């Protein structure tokens, strides 16, 4: 499928998402992201890929989540 970038207006996980920084290796962190779903979006099943980078742009985690727009 096609990948579409969806930048978050609040993109600092430490300040905006409740992540406890610095992130320790093998630590457990939980956070919630909210995304607007416009009525013009098609009704589809999709996968949402969320990545978290450190201040230097190094990828810390990448998670793919199944979702559906109804």
Automatic annotation (TrEMBL):
Pfam families on file: E1_DerP2_DerF2
Location within or outside the cell: Secreted
Keyword check for Membrane: no
GO cellular component: extracellular region
Transmembrane segments: none
Boundaries of every MD-2-related lipid-recognition domain copy: 4-69
Keywords recorded for this protein, A-Z: Secreted
UniProt family annotation: Belongs to the NPC2 family.
Protein name, per record: MD-2-related lipid-recognition domain-containing protein
């Amino acid at each position: 499928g096609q990948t579409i970038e969806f930048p978050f207006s609040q993109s600092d996980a430490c300040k905006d998402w409740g992540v406890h920084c610095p992130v320790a290796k093998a630590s457990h962190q939980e956070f919630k992201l909210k995304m607007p779903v416009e009525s013009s979006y098609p009704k589809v099943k999709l996968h949402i890929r969320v990545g978290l980078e450190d201040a230097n742009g190094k990828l810390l985690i990448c998670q793919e989540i199944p979702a559906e727009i109804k």
